[in-house]
Amino acid sequence: MDRRAFLIAWSLLALAKVLLALVLPLFGDEAFYAWEARHPAWSYSDLPPMTAWLAAVGRALLPGEAGVRLLFLALGLALPWQLRAWAARQYGEAVGWRAAWLALLVPGAVALGVLALPDVPLAVVSVAACAAFQRALGDPRPGPWLGLGALLAIGLLCHYRFGLVLVALAMATCLLPAGRASLRGPGPWLAALVACAGLLPLLAFNLANDLAGLRFQLLDRHPWRWQASAWRQPLEQALLVGPVLAGLLLAAGWRAARSPGAAGRVPAVLALSMLILVMTIGAFADDQRFRWHWPLPAWLWLLPVLAQDWPAWRPWLRRVAVASSALPVVLVLAWLASAGAPGQAARWLDAKRFPANFTGWREAADWISPIAGQGGVLVADNFMLAAALDFHLDPRRRGPLFVLDDPANAWHGRAAQLAIWGVDEAALASHGGPGVLLAEETARRFSDRHAWYRGLCDRLAGLRLDGQLLLHGGRKRFVRWRFEDIDAGAGCRQPGALPPLGWFELPDRVVAGSDLAGFGWVVQAGLGIEVVEVLVDDAPVARLARTVEVAWPRERWGEVGDPAGDRVGVEVRVPGAALLRGRREVTLVAVRGDGLRWPIGTWTVQVVPAARR
Description:
By secondary structure, this protein is α+β, with helices and mostly antiparallel strands. 52% of the residues lie in helices and 16% in strands.
């Protein structure tokens, strides 16, 4: 029964993951790993080299996104089989098949392999290391310990976070009687010596580059003080694993850890040590970036332990565990599928849940491609856009690609790597212009955009606004400029160098025959706005003037230089006769004083029939 359930579920899941890996656009981080793959090295400023190496091999075998993800997909699909082989060897075939299908209920593990991310090889190596550690503790020969050391060395090449696995192994060695006994022999010391081989490439890179990787992973990204958000960690883990399944895993692990003769005592002690370690460090470490996946190896180690005890739990509890974990699995896969159809996702996902880091890269590359093919300087405003352009424009791009200094570059640990490659803003200043700047406006908060635009004027001389690409109702917006040269402090020489900035709120439902009413504002430095046009399904239906005083832009940004002063507010009213029943697309376009038409955004409005009395 367990074998059949696993084979059916794994086959369906494998089909879904293969399809997702083929159709999903590159995630922003994936694009950067693909960029790193084009620059083979022993390490990088954000990660050890394994992720880039795997992407490079995959790209050599297959083109496009499928090539970048090829080996990651293979490892992700192999992970349940790896758990099955380990559990079957230690506890018997029946337990092996049960552990394999239980692995398909862990949402954090199910998604592994769809994207080319370092957590994929990290998880596979972590499972292999736990199995090797369990085997080595019962074998006095040096061979198993040398094998464990080799796996640890490989793990260190996957991610700096593999250091948590090393510390958990040291804790388990000290806690287990067999571990303490092994310290009197050469085994653990041989393993540690071999593991140090994985440190050599990292040390060589860091010593040659001002400790860039170590500083980012250990210092720059962590406040190392108590975080009030620490209470969220158990909730995050319940969502990562499934609340009931997580409870059963912990209960099985605790029971095995307390029983000296339990067959699963070694992985249980190791897993609990890892969870305690991660929760403790997480209370003081970075809580601004996604970190739910940090303890994933511990949950994977506990799966064979739970598989042994599974029949002992009450049937209703097992059914609840399966159902409560299967639902998050479906939601994770559905969210990933939405990234493959962003036009549909924009209709039912809000701005925070919209898969923005997947979308727009191909369209932006196609939009800039004719210019990039001419051989001039191409500048992106942040590392993620630059990585996407490098991937999608190859081999169409003829000129050099540079990246402006941006807080996101340092926030993600990529600023040092851009400097190493000679594509950062300092390298751009040395190269000079003229060129084209492509910026992702929606990569920064709305309230920060005016100051950011002003900053561009102080860094690039002679900016000339050249157009915009508006995608998915404005959830993704790219702006393009031409510039003459790099000239710090040059300022905006042309009054129309900066684009309009506006905010509007419209209802998402209106009764047929009724007017659509909304409100907002739009500002334009220097030139002002002549009129705001309203289009319904691309057909013009109204022209609106700015007549209402709105103080927010001045209070937030200071004097923006709009000739209208504070009278920048717009009362939006669309005649009911222009709104046919069904789903309508309402677009607002700001028309500048020089005649430039600039779409502010597109809103989807459902026109519903009036209720019958």
